[in-house]
Amino acid sequence: MHRTDADANASNLFSPGDPATGQPGTKIDSPWLNAVQEEICNVVTGAGISLIKGTWTQLKAAIDALISAAVNGSIVAHTYGTLWSDIDAGDSQTVVRKAGKLVSLILHAKAASTSSWTSVLTLPVGSRPPYLVRVACRVWDQSAATYYPAILSIGTDGVAVLDQYDNGTNLVVPFAIGTNDNVQACVAFLVA
Question: Residue 121 CB: number of other CB atoms within 10 A?
């Protein structure tokens, strides 16, 4: 984008000229017109809207869509088989919400009743932090019928690992969740 630099501009503004004094109006040139056209078209197509000749509301629709995406974000619920492996679909839910650069993760994952599993989660591309994120969370130990404090680490590759927890006796690093145990965590971070 640029301000007009065509002949007879007035400090890079368009001038109507003055026929009485013989001063010409600013020439409208193709570089400026193309710059304006492409700037507007890029807003429309950047919002995922196809350009349609004769439709005069596309720029407004694009701005509305971009503002809505920034304010409300997009919510994707990831459940069984998507982010975690070997979890109980009926009792587990992981929700990743992205609003602009802010990502929030609400995690509740319960081990399947038939096996134990190692707690590894991978966030979708675009929802991965540019730095290591570590957050306190808790693990439900079914056999002890109690919650234990734990640490959830999320790397720049989007891999989240429950890398330690205190089972009341010692720190376990890393650890596997046993049958019917579950993990709960809530974290928010900025993405690049």
Answer: 24
